[in-house]
Hints:
By secondary structure, this protein is mainly alpha-helical. It has 2 domains: 3-70, no CATH class; 73-178. The chain is built from 7 helices and no strands. The longest helix has 45 residues, at 73-117. The radius of gyration is 32 Å and the shape is elongated. The two termini are 33 Å apart.
Amino acid sequence: MNKSQFMTILQYHLYAMPIHERKELLAEYDMHFQHGQQNGLSEPEIAYELGDPVELAREALGAQYINPDTIKPAEARVSRTIFTIIGQFFLNISVTPLLGSLWLVCLSLVLACVSLMTAPVLASLDFVINQYFSAGKLFISIACLGVGIIAIHYALKLTRLWTQILLQYFKWIGKTIKGERSL
Length: 183
Protein backbone atom coordinates (compact mmCIF):
# COMPACT_ATOMS: atom_id res chain seq x y z
CA MET A 1 0.00 0.00 0.00
CA ASN A 2 1.46 3.36 -0.99
CA LYS A 3 1.08 6.71 0.78
CA SER A 4 -1.87 7.87 -1.33
CA GLN A 5 -3.87 4.69 -0.69
CA PHE A 6 -3.02 4.76 3.03
CA MET A 7 -4.07 8.42 3.43
CA THR A 8 -7.28 7.90 1.40
CA ILE A 9 -8.38 4.95 3.53
CA LEU A 10 -7.47 6.77 6.75
CA GLN A 11 -9.36 9.89 5.72
CA TYR A 12 -12.38 7.83 4.67
CA HIS A 13 -12.59 6.14 8.07
CA LEU A 14 -12.01 9.37 10.01
CA TYR A 15 -15.12 11.06 8.54
CA ALA A 16 -16.77 11.26 12.00
CA MET A 17 -13.90 13.35 13.36
CA PRO A 18 -14.21 17.16 13.24
CA ILE A 19 -12.53 18.57 10.14
CA HIS A 20 -9.77 20.53 11.90
CA GLU A 21 -8.80 17.52 14.04
CA ARG A 22 -8.90 15.25 11.00
CA LYS A 23 -6.61 17.59 9.06
CA GLU A 24 -4.15 17.71 11.97
CA LEU A 25 -4.09 13.93 12.26
CA LEU A 26 -3.65 13.45 8.51
CA ALA A 27 -0.85 16.03 8.51
CA GLU A 28 0.83 14.07 11.31
CA TYR A 29 0.71 10.85 9.28
CA ASP A 30 1.96 12.76 6.25
CA MET A 31 4.96 13.83 8.36
CA HIS A 32 5.57 10.16 9.26
CA PHE A 33 5.80 9.38 5.56
CA GLN A 34 8.16 12.30 4.95
CA HIS A 35 10.47 11.31 7.83
CA GLY A 36 10.42 7.69 6.74
CA GLN A 37 11.38 8.62 3.18
CA GLN A 38 14.20 10.81 4.50
CA ASN A 39 15.46 7.76 6.39
CA GLY A 40 15.44 5.73 3.18
CA LEU A 41 12.22 3.76 3.62
CA SER A 42 9.78 3.21 0.79
CA GLU A 43 6.10 4.18 1.02
CA PRO A 44 4.89 0.56 1.41
CA GLU A 45 7.42 -0.01 4.23
CA ILE A 46 6.29 3.13 6.05
CA ALA A 47 2.63 2.15 5.62
CA TYR A 48 3.41 -1.32 7.00
CA GLU A 49 5.18 0.19 10.04
CA LEU A 50 2.29 2.54 10.74
CA GLY A 51 -0.24 -0.28 10.60
CA ASP A 52 -3.72 -0.74 9.23
CA PRO A 53 -5.34 2.68 8.54
CA VAL A 54 -8.75 1.34 9.54
CA GLU A 55 -7.39 0.30 12.95
CA LEU A 56 -5.64 3.66 13.32
CA ALA A 57 -8.95 5.42 12.65
CA ARG A 58 -10.69 3.20 15.23
CA GLU A 59 -8.04 4.08 17.82
CA ALA A 60 -8.24 7.81 17.03
CA LEU A 61 -12.02 7.95 17.21
CA GLY A 62 -12.52 5.50 20.06
CA ALA A 63 -16.21 5.05 20.86
CA GLN A 64 -17.17 7.52 18.12
CA TYR A 65 -15.95 5.20 15.37
CA ILE A 66 -18.60 4.02 12.96
CA ASN A 67 -17.63 2.06 9.90
CA PRO A 68 -18.62 4.28 6.95
CA ASP A 69 -19.44 1.19 4.89
CA THR A 70 -22.29 0.28 7.26
CA ILE A 71 -24.09 3.63 6.87
CA LYS A 72 -26.61 3.74 4.10
CA PRO A 73 -26.24 6.89 1.97
CA ALA A 74 -29.96 7.72 2.20
CA GLU A 75 -29.88 7.58 6.02
CA ALA A 76 -26.83 9.83 6.10
CA ARG A 77 -28.49 12.34 3.76
CA VAL A 78 -31.72 12.41 5.75
CA SER A 79 -29.99 12.96 9.08
CA ARG A 80 -27.67 15.57 7.57
CA THR A 81 -30.66 17.36 6.06
CA ILE A 82 -32.55 17.33 9.37
CA PHE A 83 -29.60 18.75 11.29
CA THR A 84 -28.95 21.29 8.55
CA ILE A 85 -32.55 22.51 8.69
CA ILE A 86 -32.38 22.81 12.48
CA GLY A 87 -29.11 24.74 12.24
CA GLN A 88 -30.49 26.97 9.49
CA PHE A 89 -33.58 27.67 11.59
CA PHE A 90 -31.52 29.01 14.49
CA LEU A 91 -29.21 30.93 12.16
CA ASN A 92 -32.15 32.48 10.35
CA ILE A 93 -33.82 33.54 13.60
CA SER A 94 -30.88 35.84 14.27
CA VAL A 95 -29.54 36.74 10.83
CA THR A 96 -32.60 37.17 8.60
CA PRO A 97 -34.21 39.98 10.64
CA LEU A 98 -30.89 41.84 10.64
CA LEU A 99 -30.43 41.43 6.89
CA GLY A 100 -34.05 42.37 6.20
CA SER A 101 -33.90 45.47 8.38
CA LEU A 102 -30.72 46.65 6.68
CA TRP A 103 -32.41 46.17 3.31
CA LEU A 104 -35.34 48.27 4.53
CA VAL A 105 -32.88 50.97 5.62
CA CYS A 106 -31.51 51.01 2.06
CA LEU A 107 -35.03 51.25 0.70
CA SER A 108 -35.86 54.12 3.04
CA LEU A 109 -32.75 55.97 1.80
CA VAL A 110 -34.08 55.69 -1.74
CA LEU A 111 -37.47 57.02 -0.62
CA ALA A 112 -35.80 59.89 1.23
CA CYS A 113 -33.89 60.81 -1.94
CA VAL A 114 -37.10 60.72 -3.96
CA SER A 115 -38.78 63.00 -1.43
CA LEU A 116 -35.84 65.43 -1.70
CA MET A 117 -36.28 65.46 -5.46
CA THR A 118 -39.95 66.46 -5.12
CA ALA A 119 -39.06 69.65 -3.22
CA PRO A 120 -39.39 71.97 -6.28
CA VAL A 121 -42.83 70.55 -7.02
CA LEU A 122 -43.88 71.14 -3.43
CA ALA A 123 -42.47 74.70 -3.52
CA SER A 124 -44.48 75.37 -6.68
CA LEU A 125 -47.60 73.97 -5.04
CA ASP A 126 -46.97 76.20 -2.04
CA PHE A 127 -46.82 79.22 -4.37
CA VAL A 128 -50.05 78.22 -6.14
CA ILE A 129 -51.97 77.56 -2.92
CA ASN A 130 -50.70 80.46 -0.79
CA GLN A 131 -50.17 82.99 -3.59
CA TYR A 132 -46.87 83.92 -1.99
CA PHE A 133 -43.48 83.60 -3.68
CA SER A 134 -40.32 83.21 -1.63
CA ALA A 135 -36.96 83.11 -3.38
CA GLY A 136 -35.44 81.36 -0.35
CA LYS A 137 -37.90 78.48 -0.61
CA LEU A 138 -37.21 78.18 -4.31
CA PHE A 139 -33.43 78.03 -3.85
CA ILE A 140 -33.72 75.55 -0.97
CA SER A 141 -36.01 73.35 -3.05
CA ILE A 142 -33.54 73.43 -5.96
CA ALA A 143 -30.71 72.52 -3.56
CA CYS A 144 -32.81 69.63 -2.25
CA LEU A 145 -33.37 68.49 -5.82
CA GLY A 146 -29.61 68.49 -6.48
CA VAL A 147 -28.82 66.63 -3.26
CA GLY A 148 -31.62 64.14 -4.04
CA ILE A 149 -30.30 63.47 -7.55
CA ILE A 150 -26.76 62.87 -6.28
CA ALA A 151 -27.84 60.82 -3.28
CA ILE A 152 -30.30 58.61 -5.15
CA HIS A 153 -27.48 57.35 -7.37
CA TYR A 154 -25.61 56.01 -4.33
CA ALA A 155 -28.74 54.88 -2.53
CA LEU A 156 -29.80 52.78 -5.54
CA LYS A 157 -26.31 51.26 -5.79
CA LEU A 158 -26.40 50.40 -2.10
CA THR A 159 -29.88 48.90 -2.42
CA ARG A 160 -28.84 46.77 -5.43
CA LEU A 161 -25.73 45.57 -3.60
CA TRP A 162 -27.71 44.67 -0.50
CA THR A 163 -30.33 42.90 -2.62
CA GLN A 164 -27.57 40.80 -4.22
CA ILE A 165 -26.20 39.94 -0.78
CA LEU A 166 -29.67 38.87 0.38
CA LEU A 167 -30.20 36.74 -2.74
CA GLN A 168 -26.82 35.05 -2.30
CA TYR A 169 -27.63 34.36 1.33
CA PHE A 170 -30.96 32.75 0.45
CA LYS A 171 -29.34 30.73 -2.36
CA TRP A 172 -26.73 29.55 0.14
CA ILE A 173 -29.51 28.46 2.51
CA GLY A 174 -31.13 26.46 -0.30
CA LYS A 175 -27.86 24.83 -1.31
CA THR A 176 -27.03 23.97 2.28
CA ILE A 177 -30.39 22.31 2.86
CA LYS A 178 -30.03 20.35 -0.40
CA GLY A 179 -26.63 19.15 0.81
CA GLU A 180 -24.51 20.97 -1.73
CA ARG A 181 -21.19 22.23 -0.45
CA SER A 182 -20.38 25.83 -1.22
CA LEU A 183 -17.75 28.13 0.22
